[in-house]
């Protein structure tokens, strides 16, 4: 029988009533003839409580013990879900990570999945079991210790199971009903996308549309797992939610699929830097060492052997960036006249795989912003994304205007 | 290095402060040179919450899933305890049941321990680890599923580890500071015993002095594990608490060690039963099948071919007993004139290994009760115990009078 993977997050399994509700959703897929692998998170709040206890005891904890503690929430949900399904006369059983086994490396608290041998679960499906409920977020190391995959790791667990079992699809049930063209709280015309390409999802996710863990999308792209994001709080048809898939499967290719934004960007400028070979390395080396996540970088045309270097980074890393650059200057490694930080900016990006084959996207974006009187401070582009830094006060206006300009309120 | 097993119950590890407190106790034993195996229960309240969720979902649950759910509380405590010890610079790590492995049979929720191979933990001790923190109450079945040992199973886990590792002693830390000659709430002169024999402890435990799980005492007796019961809330010297041990190790052999009682006993009498061979089997067979725990049994002298049969059972099983006996009468299997139930009785017992070699104990007990004007309704004796059923209103008086009569307020 075809295999379907269904993943339920913490709010979807927050109490026994909600567990019963999502178990009914699982029952619908079983009735369609699927053998279902359900991946569950801990009941919402549980993991935070466990992490809180560890923090109370030991600020610099042993990650092996941390993993043993924080993985326990998922075990509870897995057992409760299996019991609920059994009550509905659906043959089900729970599996903890070590029982599958979901094998990982030994990087505790941020482990990478190495192998999921499907034999045990497949044998149970052959015996008539219809649902394998698997505790998400956890695995077992070569040393036989419990590992965890990092926060949000249950999405990654789900995609890895879908790949290992050749599942027809991996449905991620969450508290939103799909991926939107932009944030509906900012642009009321925002529309749910039926489909989105993996690459677009990666750009949107890292830009702030927090629906899926980035790692799970990367994994889905690598193994070509069809991912569907949908709400566990609404009745769902077969076409509900948003399908994240390879771009070949998206018929209605549109130029721009979504407008992303981030308020948490700051613009920093080194004024009048000596323009010499290796200067970029001399600036961004110390920043990387200091753990500053530099995003956009712009170097102006040099005049008189000096140039201005501008970059963006998260607002809360500005102090760290200033410290690293000042130290590099004091050490004589770099030389600049002034260091300016502008934390009153926002980043707005247009994302779409259609850009690859369509010219004029950047021009339309810049013209739209100009028509609204919005000044662009920094521009950065990739193959499927154009980002600009603008004054933060214009952010909502820019998102709305671009959403209109690219006709995102209209079905493709 | 000699091995010591220390077990901490749920109230002793109820929060991170209490875990820190008991970790200090562990540190004291490590400093003395012991390799310590710590057995932990779930933080108090946790297991009840987990059981509550299972009950909400499924009244007739799959015991395998029940075990997977309810065992998770101990895993949390084990990890937190290991972290706390590490913070104190004591090399420690946690072990879940399947990691040891603590092998059990497949009787989920009431599993019997079959084997605890000491190799893994011993190897870690050899490498310099000083404390193995083991999640109590749980094991792994031959099928690789998680099992639990039944309520209070952490005591049994502790004793089994002490036997498997040839531990010098098994210290059970709990919320009382030892075993008393009787309930101090009833007799203010009740005195803590320094030592008590396994056999006495078994009689006292099953009679209501709920300090140790009966099974753990049986196991300790079979493997001759020295058990010490002591409080985790008081500073403890080497001679604190009560040592439960073989009777050979008790120098100051006294005739009676303790007075136990139970309010939850009912007396039932079948009036005028036909006195024929096999009548006892015909009466107590159906009661056993109905799950009635018959305790004391008295058969009066037969007159005219008929006799009265009296027995005691827990108060909450009276209805069940009546139903079983009425059905047996209706089926023509037994015949009696009347069935009387007296739920207004209590059982009081004197327990002591010294009775074996001393005569006159029963006489002194009966005389003491007579002097207080207390009528005895039923008497039952074993090698080390004399029990009587009396009117419940005299229970406290009987306990106090017997405590005095056997000089239990005085050190042996």
Automatic annotation (TrEMBL), chains A, B:
Amino-acid biosynthesis among keywords: yes
UniProt keyword terms in alphabetical order: Amino-acid biosynthesis, ATP-binding, Kinase, Lysine biosynthesis, Nucleotide-binding, Transferase
Residue ranges of every copy of the ACT domain listed in the record: 268-350
PROSITE patterns: ACT, ASPARTOKINASE
Enzyme class: transferase
An MF annotation (GO) of this entry: aspartate kinase activity
EC id: 2.7.2.4
Pathway annotation from the record: Amino-acid biosynthesis; L-threonine biosynthesis; L-threonine from L-aspartate: step 1/5; Amino-acid biosynthesis; L-methionine biosynthesis via de novo pathway; L-homoserine from L-aspartate: step 1/3; Amino-acid biosynthesis; L-lysine biosynthesis via DAP pathway; (S)-tetrahydrodipicolinate from L-aspartate: step 1/4
InterPro entries: AceGlu_kinase-like_sf (IPR036393), ACT-like_dom_sf (IPR045865), ACT_Aspartokinase (IPR054352), ACT_dom (IPR002912), AKii-LysC-BS (IPR041740), Asp/Glu/Uridylate_kinase (IPR001048), Asp_kin_monofn (IPR005260), Asp_kinase (IPR001341)
Kinase in keyword set: yes
Catalytic activity of the protein: L-aspartate + ATP = 4-phospho-L-aspartate + ADP
Annotated family: Belongs to the aspartokinase family.
The protein's name: Aspartokinase
């Amino acid at each position: 029988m075809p295999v379907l993977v269904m993943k339920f997050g913490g709010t979807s399994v927050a109490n026994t009533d909600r567990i019963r509700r999502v178990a009914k959703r699982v029952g619908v897929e079983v009735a369609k003839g699927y053998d279902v692998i359900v991946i569950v998170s801990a009941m919402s709040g549980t993991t935070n409580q466990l992490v809180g206890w560890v923090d109370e005891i030991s600020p610099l904890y042993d990650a092996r013990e941390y993993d043993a503690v924080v993985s326990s929430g998922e075990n509870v949900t897995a057992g409760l879900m299996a019991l609920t399904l059994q009550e509905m006369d659906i043959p089900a059983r729970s599996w903890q990570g070590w029982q599958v086994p979901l094998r990982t490396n030994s990087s505790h608290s941020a482990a990478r999945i190495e192998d999921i041998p499907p034999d045990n679960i497949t044998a149970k499906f052959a015996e008539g079991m219809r649902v394998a409920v698997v505790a998400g977020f956890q695995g077992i190391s070569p040393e036989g210790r419990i590992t965890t995959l990092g926060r949000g790791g249950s999405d990654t667990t789900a995609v890895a199971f879908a790949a290992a079992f050749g599942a027809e699809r991996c449905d991620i049930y969450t508290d939103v009903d799909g991926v939107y063209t932009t944030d509906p709280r900012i642009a009321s015309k925002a529309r749910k996308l039926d489909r989105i390409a993996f690459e677009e999802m990666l750009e949107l996710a890292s830009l702030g549309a927090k629906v899926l863990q980035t790692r799970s999308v990367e994994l889905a792209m690598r193994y070509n797992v069809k991912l569907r994001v949908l709400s566990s709080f609404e009745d769902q048809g077969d076409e509900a939610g948003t399908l994240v898939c390879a771009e070949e499967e998206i018929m209605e290719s549109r130029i721009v699929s979504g407008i992303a934004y981030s308020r948490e960007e700051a613009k920093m400028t080194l004024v009048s830097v000596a323009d010499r070979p290796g200067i970029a390395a001399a600036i961004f080396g110390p920043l990387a060492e200091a753990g500053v996540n530099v995003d956009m970088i712009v170097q102006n045309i040099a005049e008189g052997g000096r140039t201005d270097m501008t970059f963006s980074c998260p607002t809360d890393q500005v102090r760290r960036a200033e410290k690293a650059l000042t130290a590099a200057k004091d050490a004589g490694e770099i030389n600049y006249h002034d260091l300016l930080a502008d934390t009153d900016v926002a980043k707005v990006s247009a994302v779409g795989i259609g850009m690859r084959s369509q010219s004029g996207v950047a021009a339309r974006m810049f013209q739209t912003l100009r028509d609204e009187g919005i000044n662009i401070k920094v521009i950065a582009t990739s193959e499927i994304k154009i980002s600009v830094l603008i004054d933060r006060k214009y952010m909502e206006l820019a998102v709305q205007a671009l959403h209109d300009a690219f006709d995102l309120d209209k079905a493709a």
